[in-house]
Amino acid sequence: MPTGPIGPEVSVRARSDGLTLLEVLVVAAIVGVVAGLVAISGRPIVRGQESAAAVRTVQQSVWQGATMAASRGIRTQLVVSGNQLAVQRADDGSVIRRFELPEDASLSVDDGPLLTFTPPGKVDESTLPPADDPLRLSVGDRTYTLQVSLIGEVRATGVGP
DSSP 3-state helix, strand, coil percentages of the chain (rounded to 5)? Predict the structure, then answer.
């Protein structure tokens, strides 16, 4: 056995493959903390995307109602049923296209016909919401006032946080 200046030399073996349990636990703790921070900071982003998706769904459904009336030469209606919007033929009620709002979204109207579109692709003025009681879309804690033009354009103005 070789000896050094202080005493017998102890050979140090290099560790072979693998990690110790302590190293694995430290890495798992770090990954857990990072994942928790990402989940917490991502929630407002998801809520904002759901709100934007709900507004786009209403805009798209109104535009489709006007387009279908113009392209097919028939009167169409936009009908609300819970969280679904359906573009239907006004004469027989057959569904041309269906849209679904996010689960926490709601419109300020009862179920039934919302808007009627005439063959040139215009919204029937008698079905437009009155100016003193505009159409509102609520998604979570956000509320949007929706203004519908005669040609089927929808402008959303945000109210709330």
Answer: 35, 30, 35
